[in-house]
Specification:
alpha/beta, Rossmann fold, 5 helices, globular, binds flavin mononucleotide
């Protein structure tokens, strides 16, 4: 069984939570994949779970053209876990963002991806407000692409 860890921050209206649910839905289309979904505005991620994950999906609202604090805390924890010798780097990942008219914060998440030498599987999905229409399909497709990558790698 391959493990995908979806780490997202959602706080204001649940827009990013909705997107995370759609990404999880896309991941679950592929057999042999187990998905864990954590809202880091409500709970910290256990770094043993991060180490066990075969791939990550990161989601955030745009907060002042940067990722929200819960997701930043996750990356801080990941850095310390790496320094403690846990295997948390170099995995496949995707990213998604909701915003109120900006959207530039996606770059801060992708910069973390590069910093941890993660492999971006598909272009990030960026959506104004709650996902509707094309953004729903794009979010599901994002999860699907990630799950297919981890299962393919296992063959
Ligand atoms: C503290 C704060 C800062 C924000 N800063 C920005 C911003 O710089 N640019 C932008 O486009 N939206 C900004 N927003 C709007 C949120 O990114 C947007 O409403 C998002 O979809 C909320 O996601 P959530 O409902 O999952 O919490 C901000 C919202 C809050 C609460």
């Amino acid at each position: 069984m391959k493990r995908i860890l979806i780490v997202y921050h959602s706080q204001q209206k649940g827009n990013t939570r909705r997107m995370a649910e759609l990404v999880a839905q896309g991941c679950r289309e592929t057999a042999g994949v187990e998905v864990a979904v954590v809202n880091v505005n409500e709970a910290r991620v256990d770094m043993n779970a991060a180490e066990r994950a075969d791939a990550y999906a990161f989601g955030s609202p745009d907060y002042f053209t940067y990722m929200a604090g819960g997701l930043k805390q996750f990356f801080d924890d990941l850095c310390l876990a790496d320094w403690a010798g846990k295997k948390v780097k170099g995995k496949p990942y995707v990213a998604f963002l909701t915003h109120g008219g900006g959207g530039g914060a996606i770059k801060s998440i992708e910069a973390m991806g590069a910093s941890f030498k993660l492999q971006q599987v598909a272009p990030s999905v960026v959506c104004q407000g709650a996902p509707t229409g094309a953004a729903v399909e794009q979010s599901i497709a994002l999860g699907r692409a990630l799950a297919q990558r981890v299962v393919r790698e296992a063959l």
